[in-house]
Amino acid sequence: MNKIGFNVLAWSAGMSDEILPIVDRLKKIGYDGVEFFVGTPDKAAYQRIGNHCRELGLEVTTVATVSKEENPISPDASVRAKALDRLKWVVDRTHDLQAKILCGPLHSAHSLFALHAPEDQEYGWGAEVLHAVGEHAAPANVTLGLEALNRFESYLCNTMEQLSRLIREAQHPNVRAMFDTHHANIEEKKFAQAIQTIAPYLVHVHISENDRGTPGDGHIAFDDAFSALARINYTGSFTIEAFSRNDPDFANAIGVWREFSKPWDIAEKGLTFIQQMCEKHGLK
């Protein structure tokens, strides 16, 4: 059964008790799950919030990024070693939250460009690090859902074809893929073809409008996306990823310079929209 989640990055990238009222309201609205950004160093906070979500009956997923100092495709072996350590730490915090899916552009540093097209050696370096992360994640029952980003945020994996290549090279059952409608809207020719390409590895989906506001209010071809997901019998979660300037440091880091929609408007209208899309296309 497809479940519907919401990423609390619309309010905060932090992990503290201040987000508990948000979690409670998302449950009250009707969400099945919540997604958190893994970055806050306080281990105990992840455990407390994970327990709270479990008590509410909410499933948890996580998302993370890596910096240039911890870049899995750096030509510097010491930087790649730091990347492995960082990603292991992210897996551990995901486990503290009692989550099973860790998603995001874990393959390379966010918004770091080498001024050349992706090279075979870079895929090899990334695959080596991700295989090792998969080994660490397996005992915790955590699966990585790697994310392809648009060309303005990453150069290694912009498309499902590139992402599939990296996953094949990583050769680990806990290294899988996610699909994000915002990035695919920029990079893919057709949603149906992209989803068919990534189908063997797909474990998570982000529902995100072209402007990162309320799903259904923009020009994303959601009918194409949902119909394609229905054809491959996708059974994972649909998680809304929308952004705001509520957390200025995070907003500045990802280039969010204005408000798209009010977070609670996104949450309420977005839930209804996904439910309607699922019913329309025979997803349950």
UniProtKB/TrEMBL annotation:
- Which Gene Ontology molecular-function terms are recorded? isomerase activity
Look up keyword Ligase and say if it applies: no
Q: Which InterPro entries match?
A: IolE/XylAMocC-like (IPR050312), Xyl_isomerase-like_sf (IPR036237), Xyl_isomerase-like_TIM-brl (IPR013022)
UniProt keyword annotation of Isomerase present: yes
Q: Which Pfam families match?
A: AP_endonuc_2
Per the database record, which ranges form the Xylose isomerase-like TIM barrel domain?
A: 23-252
Q: Which UniProt keywords apply?
A: Isomerase
Q: Show the PANTHER family listed in the entry.
A: HYDROXYPYRUVATE ISOMERASE, INOSOSE DEHYDRATASE
Q: What is this protein called?
A: Sugar phosphate isomerase/epimerase
Q: Which organism is it from?
A: Adhaeribacter radiodurans
For this protein's source organism, the top of the classification is: Bacteria, Pseudomonadati, Bacteroidota, Cytophagia, Cytophagales
